[in-house]
Specification:
The complex is a heterodimer. By secondary structure, chain A is an alpha+beta fold. Chain A contains 9 helices and 9 strands. Helix content of chain A is 43%, strand content 18%. By secondary structure, chain B is an all-alpha fold. The radius of gyration of chain B is 14 Å and the shape is flat. The chains are: A alpha+beta, B mainly alpha.
């Protein structure tokens, strides 16, 4: 069988494939699903820190996040936030603690709340807020995700805050290479009654106690800080020196495999209709619509997670 | 309106509902996965109904819809999980 006849066999209806592109036979479909699943498992294995072949790359920068945040605020008719080095220090302490205690949450497993990091950095606040993110490849997708979440959006476009501090720190969290983004908001004032909010909670607190939606959760005591690795304060870029991004490769694999399937559907449909073939098979138009919608959904899916 | 057109209208409504849901809950992976599974199941039901009405139903066709739906779920779940 020559290469051309193999292509014809797999992509077009022909007497060699019972007048249905072989790729659209149930066996062909099983092969496509197999390629998608096995390929993704293989990519996950390569992404494992033990192999260290793939890794996570990110172009998220502090400057871009600050600029994008202020653009959103200006669009909402609010004043831009000024960059606070104390808040940035607090954010770096929080990021370092997340790597150290290996957690992805607002509060650490040892009970440290986000607000303790404000105090540890010497930032006395009237209002405070926190947005977290990880695994985002670029700033645009990160901002889109935060803006799509009502609670995170509320922090970004809140008139209560006047200052912002950020940490964008690469590292290994829960066994996976990632880039953590800690975004702290604040309104400074020494000794006033503090009020704090995270991406998921709104907190109103008397001087030494924080409450989450009316429930007392933690005392605002500065935690002991042990910093493993802190990026320089002015560091604008956090890029893990990885070779490839597993998520992008997985997306490319899925897209490529599906493109072949869609090509077979289109060729099969066109040739079957032009030759007026009568077959008892699935509806190619419906398959094309279904798979294209799924592909559209996968473009919306983010590798990143927000908290 | 022919039966076939009605079927395509139903598919278009299902597809639009799915896209709106995914767009609105793009920050919650669990919801995206659940909505994809629901969309895949409704697609299989749509396929069976469509072929029953068109009088060209066959068990092999059901398996084809099942596999296409499974491919859809695999494409989304491999990116989310």
């Amino acid at each position: 069988m020559t290469f051309t006849s193999k292509l014809r066999h797999w992509f077009t209806p022909h007497h060699t494939n019972n007048f249905r592109a072989k790729l659209l036979h149930n066996s062909g479909l099983i092969a496509i699903i197999g390629i998608v699943i096995v390929g993704n498992v293989f990519l996950r294995l390569l992404d494992n820190p033990a192999f260290h072949i793939l890794g996570f790359t990110s172009s998220v920068t502090i400057d871009e996040v600050v600029r994008a945040t202020n653009e959103k605020r200006l669009s909402a008719g609010l004043k831009p936030l000024s960059y606070s080095e104390k808040l940035a220090d607090a954010a770096r302490r929080k990021a370092a603690n997340m790597f150290e205690e290996n957690y992805w949450a607002h509060n650490s497993p040892s009970g440290k709340s986000p607000w303790g990091w404000f105090m540890a950095a010497g930032y006395n606040y009237v209002y405070a807020g926190e947005n977290l993110a990880k695994d985002f490849g670029n700033t645009s997708r990160l901002m889109d995700a935060w803006m799509a979440s009502p609670t995170h959006r509320e922090n970004i476009v809140s008139s209560k805050y006047s200052e912002i501090g950020l940490a964008v720190v690469p590292g290994t969290l829960q066994g996976q290479e990632t880039v953590l983004v800690v975004q702290f908001f604040g309104a400074p004032n020494g000794g006033a009654v503090p009020s704090v909010a995270t991406g998921n909670t709104t907190v109103q607190a008397p001087a030494q106690v924080a409450e989450v939606k009316g429930t007392k959760v933690a005392e605002l005591v500065a935690p002991e800080v042990q910093i493993i690795q802190i990026a320089p304060a002015s560091s604008p870029v956090a890029i893990v020196p990885a070779k490839y991004n597993q998520f992008d490769l997985a997306r490319a694999l899925n897209l490529g495999t599906t493109a072949l399937f869609i090509l077979a559907l289109i060729l099969d449909l066109y040739i079957a209709e032009s030759q007026k073939l009568t077959r008892r098979v699935g509806n190619n138009w419906a398959h094309i619509i279904f798979i294209n919608l799924i592909l559209l959904a996968t473009t919306i899916v983010n590798a990143g997670k927000i908290m | 309106m022919t039966t076939s057109r009605i079927d395509y209208c139903v598919l278009a409504i299902l597809a639009t509902a799915y896209l709106i849901f995914v767009f609105n809950y793009q920050t919650v992976p669990k919801y995206i996965l659940i909505s994809t599974i629901v969309f895949a199941i409704t697609y299989i039901i749509w396929g069976v109904t469509h072929h029953l009405k068109s009088k060209n139903f066959h068990a092999r066709v059901v398996l084809e819809y099942l596999l296409v739906a499974l491919l859809g779920v695999a494409l989304v779940s491999t990116l989310l999980l």
